[in-house]
Protein 1
Amino acid sequence: MSTSPRSGAYRAAIAPAGIVAAASALLLALLVLPVISLLLRVPPGVLLERLRSPVVTQALWLSLLTSLASTLLVLGLGLPVAYLLAGRRFVGKRVVEALIDLPMVLPPTVAGVGLLLAFGRVGLVGRFLAPLGITVPFTVAAVVLAQAFVSGPFFVNAARAGFEAVDPQYLRAAATLRSSAAYAFLRVVLPLSVPALLAGAAMTWARALGEFGATITFAGNLPGVTQTMPLAVYIALQSDLEAAVALSVILLIFSFTLLLALRNLPGRTWR
Amino acid sequence: MLQAELAKRLGTFHLDAALSAEPGKTLVLVGENGSGKSTILNLLAGLIDLDRGRVALDGVVLEDTARGVRTPAHLRPVGFVFQEYALFPHLSVFENVAFGLRAQRLSHAPVTRRVRAVLDQLGIAGLAAQRPPALSGGQRQRVALARALAVEPRLLLLDEPLAALDLQTRAQVRAELRRRLAALTCATILVTHDAHEALLFGDQIAVLDGGRVVQMGGRDELLRHPRSDYVAQLMGLNFFQGKVTAKEDGGVAVVEIGGGRVRVAGPVGEDQVFLVVDPREVTLHLEAPAGSAQNVFQGPIVEMVPEPPYGDRVRVALGTRPPLVAEVTARAVASLGLREGMTVHASVKATAPRMFS
């Protein structure tokens, strides 16, 4: 972030340096203390050893696979939705917007209950799937659906903002160059939005990776099938604190690395 | 040949204009901000819909509200050079120029051939691999022109093509653009708010004010016979094409024009120059005035026309060499006893003419 002269003046005028320093220190301490505590608790040797236990590797792989699958699902379905929301006005647009944002404020357990009621044996959708021999709850598919549900808004909103940030002049130029709307989207809007799309995808992935409430409600906690990393941490906590800490540290390192990488994305500004 | 009748309401602004443009010629739309110039280009390109009217290009009707005909922008044979050029920043110069051809699903070989030809023609083959953000303003303008011309439009639209350039490059790019446009075979419409640019580029000039064409005609007609105060103010200038024949001490150039000579102070550019003299800078005298920094011309008064709307200023056309137009107050006319046919001396300070190359 660059600091413009104006924001500098703003800081000097309104917030005396002491208050800023104190508040920053307190908030950072709140964020850093749990992290440090986790890191100090388990020596690296133990951490590596724990990494090799089957419960941990299973949960790790399951988390990676399901979160990647749900991110891809969100990308595939979210891209057109973001395009729709960025482009035109239509009846009910605000309702769609509110629906898209809903998972961000809804308690994940509520999302899980909702998914269960929709896809369960007697659910709205589930009752038609059951005769076909398809059961969704308490399967890997349920994990992916739960993750997609809670992480979707991150991608849709980021992609939409990316599309909207494309200078409309480029679209006008494309139109005068024999380009249909679809061609212009593929060759102009999409490439210019790549940084926003990457950022949105990374946030979505991180959120899916950390998903707990909706997963345990809708997909249960079956080791090797639906027990993802966050669930494994919770379960381990009941019996084996060290295992729980080891799992937490792995998740922590991964998430932090992802967020850091996000900030170092090629910050391409085209103008 | 373009023929267009355009009506469009945008908020409180109401455009209502009829235009025609010939192949191989440049029509300049000149007017102040908000006069409707850019709106006309957008309507012709199909970027916005007509409320009412008709656009026909080379006998093909592109839009006719009466018959419900409307060709979308991407199917019109129209090229557009935008004010800030709108070059795709993520694509190389080559890909920018190729964009319109690839959008038509042309195969690889003809695209490459056509792009190379256009890049060569505009002298920017060396920039093919560059991206627009790395280019200078003048280079960007050439790429924008190349991109628009690559699809071989029947109508080329340029929206303030010099406005994005700094003053130094502007003069050079202007001369170059003028040569290029003169060589084109398609009809060209150029928008500007600058009267000098209008005179330099326009085979035909349409003066716009408040969404209406207040006068349309050739350069000389607008210069000699502005039909309204607005046109007179905007366009009523003396305009000459000439050649620098000598340079005097103190940075004064001698410019040979139409059988006469004008001494001009200021930096001397190329050989071929254009001079613009505001008629208010032309002073009339009964006796030859003294003073060395002046150009003095002798000749008869050909015509005297009171300026609309009040007639308190009078345009005086002179049979001097070169022919000059002066604008003087009605009081000066009375006190000097000016009348048509009478011989007078007209003086122009060496600092008055504006010189363009």
Note: The mean pLDDT of chain A is 87.
Protein 2
Amino acid sequence: MQKGLKGGGILFLLPAIVFVVLLFVYPFLYGLYLSFTSPEGAPTLSNYARFFTDWWEARTIWVTLKIALPATLINVILAIPFAYHMRHGMRGEKLITFFLIIPLTLGTVLVSEGMLSYMGPNGWLNQLLQAIAIVRGPVRFTHNYWGVLISLVIQGFPFAFLMILGYVSGINPDLEKASQMLGASRAQTFVRVLFPLMVPGIAICFCLNFVMAFSVFPSAVLLGEPSGPTRVIAYAAYQWALEKFDFNIASAISMVMAAIELVVISGVLVWRNRIYRGASMVGKG
Amino acid sequence: MKEFSRFIVKELTKEFEGKTALSRFSLEIANGEFITFLGPSGCGKSTALNCIAGLIPITHGEISIDGECIDDGKNKIPPEKRSFGMVFQNYALFPHLSVFNNVAFGLRLRRLSKPLIHEKVTAALKLVHLEGHENKFPAQMSGGEQQRVAIARCIVLEPRLLMLDEPLSNLDAKLRTEMRNELHTLHTRLGVTTIYVTHDQQEALALSDRIVVMRLGHIQQVGAPGQVYADPANLFVADFMGFKNIWDASLGALRENGDMLEAEVTVKSMKLKARLRYPQGDPRRDGLIAAFKAGAAVKTAIRPEDIHVGRDETGVSMRSRVTLMEYQGQTSYVSALMENDTIVELRPSTPVRVGETLELSIAPEKVFVFAAGRE
């Protein structure tokens, strides 16, 4: 493999490398440069200072974490039992998967629009809840924290489920039988064999889900209260860039976003390595 | 190892979606016995094993140990409470656990004390010659080593029954023979009752106290290796145990002579004499007599090594021309075309050349004849 790359193989990688450099590396480095310079081009830390000292801006970190972390936890934790039960396939699996994938294919805006009408004060969900007398007045599911959280679950759960399902169904079913033959109950087999083997998949799934949720933007605007309670960090960056036209502060905010995502991801990977030491050695057997 | 006095499998039947994978499988297992389920893929041998293990539910039948019902299709003791051990074809070691922790897995579930676990694991690893490998992970080991860990992981729990599901089929030829010898030694040392599943007749012959030959979910023959090898119960067993020269034939004459049957068969104009040790009540005897009365076709089965090259006063001799020769060291695999236009397979001890004409003879005791009715 490496020998091949040294030779002419590198040519085949070239389009991919160009693609990554143009669309990812260059914009990132340019953003990094912008974030450390003034609009006139002089090096400065004031963009970061401005963000962290302005409570209205700095609190977006907390606001976003408060939405993204619970949403990610719900998605991943909910996906584990579903994936566990469907690991050997089941009747109607294709139908279930189909319905789970729909929200992914529709896109955030359509799902948000749907939620606005179905879960709004006069939507069928509220009418139903009132008809069966669970609640008196209409419950607010939209234009607040809960609207954003629900939309993140609707969008993120199928993704988490499919990822973890792929991971669990790749675990050799004989391992479960072996565990059983050695005297383990179903629960013991899950705790001692399946879960540790799922940890790498869960960790990656958590990371991807968290990054998606942390950069939430359309549903925070459409379903939340972007004027305050759900003024997420991506929205702050958007306002600075396209409402106040200060790309330097907007870049600084993006860099803060990236840094927080990195911190959370590193934390998750450390947790994974603690539980699953043999991770790098799965191959044969 | 835990002992028992009566392990009975009675009329075990397993149906999958209307298809019968295992039909009326009955077997009594003696303590300390090494039993092999032998047959081609799809014969039900693995199904039988998994049913006994409790890993798949049975449709009918009963399994009991010392009068205690383990499984009767309605009430079953779950596999984790049967104290049986199973070694899987792909070893099924836990990839996230070290060798030590793999072997300690079952002991930890039984909440043994730490020093006791350490002592038992060390002893088990020593038994399979893996001292010093405690901290390795399965993926760092060869197939043979992984297999040993899988065996140690089972025997450390001192199971009532050790089950091995094609344990050697993922190993290369040399290692397979080595591991086979080791399994043999281990069984002799520990005396653990063992069920071994394989499609390899060599392994079955080498290891077993008794062989259960299976086909399409049915038991074909149960017997000691020598018995199954030398006295196959039907054409299928003969074919599977290395008999060749299975020819369509007709019965010209059949005489009963005590426990013996004297037969004259004709294979495409070639006449053969057969002296068959099919005692009274033997289904093979009844089958042949019925076939003779009905004038039905029969089939022969003769081991290639039983065909004598050269003239012989007792047998019938025929001429043949060698068409294929594969050198195999001690012997050669030789195919020859006889004058009756039938291919004969033989293993001459002296070298022959393709195109050479050979005089062949077959002793009547070496010819098996089976009724051809049930294929």
Note: Residues 54-275 of chain A form a domain with the MetI-like fold fold (CATH 1.10.3720.10).
